[in-house]
Design goal:
Blueprint (H helix, E strand, L loop, with lengths): L8 H4 L4 H6 L1 H13 L12 E4 L6 H10 L7 E4 L13 E5 L6 H13 L3 E5 L2 H10 L3 E3 L10 H14 L7 H18 L9 H9 L3 E7 L4 H15 L4 E5 L14 H5 L1 E7 L5 H16 L3 E6 L5 H23 L7 H12 L4
Parallel strand pairs: 1-2, 1-3, 3-4, 4-5, 6-7, 6-8, 8-9
Helix pairs in contact: 3-7, 3-8, 4-7, 4-10, 8-13, 9-13, 10-13
Bound molecules: fructose -6-phosphate.
Fructose -6-phosphate binds next to loops.
Length: 355
């Protein structure tokens, strides 16, 4: 059995994904400060906001929408594609979010917004989008270089929060951000590589998921973006196929699927992400629906959010998933950082011409 204690991290994780996860707290603080210093005041205020991005650069927008869902009286759409929907017009704002600045779908969405005369903001570390922003005189928030895009989540989340603050959509939330950074720091002690498996919930859960098909469930309201982050981190760090779905919709279709294919279901492992703010009926639905997975032979594991504010609770669930995906990569014997298939597709597409 592969030990998750006394890990040889130089061999297992040469690019240092564990340091990136442990560094989320410091990144959150730095990104929040940098965003507050953004020299940009949008006038007049747009009627709606579209965030264009893919993968690790899009998830921050979903998480932010979940975080602000209860107070945001302002439409925010996330566009993961080349084309913008018809509602994105000159009275809106387009935020083009791409860590590398070179993702062709995001560049295409930016160019489409330019054609339509939509005001724009760019969030990236460099690349084509940085050049376009400079050429067009479009404001840009610069990310520090050297991160795998998905590991720059604190940068993309807190920079986007800064854009929302500049738009007057929310206050600065200093105390909540400080609280969330503190929580991420404590999570690194509790779930980082130094903490032994016997007392480390992330190592324990990775062990339970190993060799199984991870299925991540959560409430749709506020928490579904976290379930998506879990799935994508398990995909990219652990090189493992995973699935996610949200409640209550799950109870109206997916629940029926827990019959076939029986051999596959018996090899699944369900993770239920729960939050104290979940609707009471959704909580009841989790309790009623979990036994169907159990009866099919799947393991069922509950992860409760921790912390006081919603931001802390969201961060606690996100960071737990990040650590779990890291340990799952070690159990799978794969390096968490390279995403060779993503790179291969991007290169092949580039060879076949521009979007
Ligand atoms: C890689 C990752 C990917 C990228 C995606 C878009 O770490 O998470 O999902 O985020 O391929 O690339 P960027 O973020 O550079 O626009």
């Amino acid at each position: 059995m592969t030990s998750l204690d006394s890990l040889d991290l130089d061999r297992l994780d040469p690019a240092g994904m564990h340091r990136r996860i442990a560094g989320l707290a410091a990144d959150a603080r730095r990104a929040h400060e940098a965003a507050a210093a953004l020299d940009w005041a949008p006038r007049p205020r747009p009627l709606a906001l579209a965030v264009a991005g893919m993968g690790g650069s899009a998830i921050a927008a979903d998480l932010l929408r979940g975080y602000l869902e209860d107070q945001l009286e302002f439409p925010v759409g996330v566009v993961r594609d080349y084309d913008l929907p018809a509602w994105v017009g000159a009275d809106c704002l387009l935020v083009a979010s791409s860590y590398s600045g070179n993702t062709e779908e995001t560049v295409a969405a930016y160019l489409e917004a330019r054609r339509r005369g939509v005001p724009r903001v760019v969030l990236c570390s460099g690349g084509r989008l940085a050049a376009l922003a400079a050429e067009d005189g479009v404001p840009r928030a610069a990310y520090p270089p050297g991160y795998p895009p998905r590991a720059a989540l604190a940068w993309s989340f807190f920079t986007l929060l800064g854009v929302f603050v500049k738009l007057g959509l929310t206050g600065g939330r200093e105390r909540e951000v400080a609280g969330a950074a503190g929580l991420l720091e404590r999570a690194a002690e509790e779930m980082g590589p130094v903490a032994a498996e016997a007392v480390n919930p992330a190592k324990q859960l990775a062990r339970a998921l190993h060799g199984r098909l991870p299925v991540v469930y959560s409430a749709a309201r506020r928490i579904e973006p976290v379930a998506l982050r879990w799935r994508q981190q398990i995909n990219e760090n652990a090189k493992t196929l995973a699935h996610h779905a949200a409640f209550p919709e799950h109870n109206h279709n997916e629940v029926v699927g827990w019959e076939q294919p029986a051999e596959l279901l018996a090899r699944a492992a369900v993770v239920v992400l729960r939050d104290s703010g979940d609707h009471s009926r959704v909580q009841r639905r989790f309790e009623l629906a979990a036994p169907f997975a159990g009866a099919a032979g799947a393991g069922v594991h509950v992860v409760e959010s921790r912390g006081g504010s919603l931001l802390e609770r969201l961060c606690s669930l996100v960071v737990t998933g990040d650590w779990v995906s890291l340990y799952l990569s070690f159990l799978n014997g794969v390096d968490p950082t390279p995403v060779t298939k993503i790179d291969l597709l991007k290169n092949r597409l580039e060879q076949t011409g521009a979007a």
